[in-house]
Design a protein that fits this description.
With about 210 residues, this protein is mainly alpha-helical. Helix content is about 45%, strand content about 10%. It folds into two domains: about 150 residues; about 40 residues, no CATH class. The longest helix has 16 residues. The model has no long low-confidence stretch (mean pLDDT about 80).
Length: about 210
Amino acid sequence: MGKKPTGEPFIIIRCSVLESIARRQLTLAEYQCLDVIAIELMRHGGKYAESGGIPIEYETFIKFGVHKDAVAPALRGLEALGFIRVTKRGRGGNASYRLTAEYCPTFLKARDHVNNEARPTDEWREWESKPGDIGQAAKEARNRKDPRAVAKGKRHYRPRRKHDPKKIENAILNIAGLNELARPIVGDNFSALIIDEDEEIRLRGVVQ
């Protein structure tokens, strides 16, 4: 990472990275997440934390335009394709329980927490010799879910109640006071309700 005369930080991306097979597999969300990681590296002065990565809040990816449901699959895809390493796993929850994840872009030069040079490790190069496997590996990584997150979701999941259209109809009729009038006047009901023909026609007309 360097600085222009204006003082604005910049990074150098090598031609081999841009031409790589792994880069051609990136989704839009993965491109966006990779940009966020590069931006945060520049904002941290090109220096990693003690873990060897940059701390980035989950919400930072969302603010950059990544859909909240696409952040985790995109980060898993980037890790599988060799463009990032997760140097510290994050954890959700309240302030006392939450941990911010830290990420290292493998294709950029930076400095470690004691200001020594940290050269690119370029894990993405591993796919250059086995291009046939890369698509399936990336897909599986994106679809792989954290068992802890799945278990947490099941604990807090409440299935939506299915609405019975007939019950809704009856409830509306009860509120309107029309349920009694809507019952067919036949059999025992007819014996119990002594009304003339004109009255029956009038009552049936009310509920139509």
